[in-house]
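Appendix B, record 7
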Amino acid sequence: MKRLFPALLAAALLGAAIAPAAGNPLAGRKRPANAEPTVITSDQLEFDYQNFVALFDGNVVVKDPEFTLKTDRMLVTFENSNDVKRVDCIGNVDMTSDDIHARCGRAVYTRENALVVMSDEPVVTKGKDQRVAGQVINIWLDDERVEVKNGAAVEARPNSFKKPAAGGDAK
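Structure tokens (predicted):
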């Protein structure tokens, strides 16, 4: 059970990719010890202790107080220290947090550079006001930076990218 915790953490970190900017509920803060748990369900779980790999296979659902992630398959790779090294979500990746929704065929989180790479028809929407798509969407969680490659398409209603006023919320 002690080794399963990093897999839960990895799923939480990957879910943070759907809201990388100021609206990201997970960026730059640690969760309190009494926070609701992250729960991962799948048809099957295979854990290879020798190679530091966990494979959640079939109907993977990650439910966290801050987001929900669904995918066909999730592979979590660990360092020898049990820290998460990389998380691969493969097939029908669907992530939701508040009014932010992201979907793609593949999403890869790399801990070393806090980078999430979404590929295979990635689309990220925020409510009805903003939509971003391209062949590849790179999200650097620590830098609150996004790059859309190869056919970037952005749809935004006027004033939908306003920064929040002091003490207020941005759209």
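Remarks on this record: Residues 114 and 141 are 5 Å apart (CA to CA). Residues 1-29 have pLDDT under 50 and may be disordered.
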